[in-house]
Amino acid sequence: MNDSKKFPSQSSNSDVQAFLKKLAQTPNVKPVGRKGRLIFALDATASREPTWREACRIQAEMFDAAAALGGLEIQLCYYRGIADFEAFPWLIHAEDLRRRMADVECVGGYTQIGKVLEHALQETRKSKVDALVFVGDCMEENVDCLCKTAGELGLRGVKAFLFQEGFDPTAERAFKQIAKLTQGAHCRLDAGSARQLRELLNAVAVYAAGGLKALEDFGRVRGGLALQLAHEMKKS
Questions:
Q1: Residues 6 or more apart in contact with residue 106 via CB below 8 angstroms
Q2: What predicted TM-score, i.e. pTM, was given to this entire model?
Q3: Is residue 1 part of a domain?
Q4: Which of 2, 4, 21, 135 yields a CA-CA distance of 20 to 30 A from 234?
């Protein structure tokens, strides 16, 4: 539980650029012959309440961007309170995601990132999960335990993309380790996080659903970070 919602005064554009470079080096996670599967995990503790409603809209847009390709299933999960963790069924319609997220209220409590990672591991044991996206602002758990589970996810090919709101050095260290162990990526967002998060989530979703060609087409229409990512990937 992090009561201080503070963003750095300097832009974290370098973090965004580093994220794009890392993602450009990440092989396309979409398997041949089936839809890609992405777990979308959220911190719903009280510290994120100021940005939660905006996040609902942004994250639904991510689903819209990928759904147009017909190649992505998303499972929403979140934690809040002392031990409240919930995972919804796999979704294929943006409206279902919007409705479920709109019903969630942020509640004070401690982080449960370990449950997020364990859940992703259980899901991929049942049917391959291609990527895990996590959005949060702090970490209050045993980092060694988190890294153990992250390592297992990495061995199973589940890449974790962690988006950090604000600046918490403890969270940043943990998120970077999780990303490294899964061959995913970490990106810290600054005060312009709504715009950056929208672009980065859309880019990850489109890439997971349709690969590089889909991302190039998406980038030509939308520009911004999506187009930049497509260019980086073509150079790699």
A1: 44, 45, 46, 48, 49, 52, 80
A2: 0.82
A3: no
A4: 135
